[in-house]
From TrEMBL:
This is C-type lectin BpLec-like. InterPro entries: C-type_lectin-like, C-type_lectin-like/link_sf, C-type_lectin/snaclec_domain, C-type_lectin_CS, CTDL_fold. GO terms for cellular component: extracellular region. It comes from Crotalus adamanteus. The keyword Secreted applies.
Amino acid sequence: MNAKAASCPRDWLQKEGNCYGYFDAKLSWDAAEKRRWRWADESTYNYKSWQVNQPDNYRNNEHCGELTNYSDFKLWNDNFCGNPNAYICKYQL
């Protein structure tokens, strides 16, 4: 028998049948997950909100995404994957 959660854990956001959790522990991308522009469940992202002229893959070395305070954490920027950042997790209800 497979039991599914009816709601998200406390402090997680529920949207369109998924739960999203924000974690402010700073980790490199590799430490958090080894994927590019995909959720860990292999689904592609269907929401894009890049900063102007992003992603630019500066010096061919920016393969991870981040939200920055420059945009009040609303717009994405691509950055070096070794930079430690907070991260978001997603799972389907």
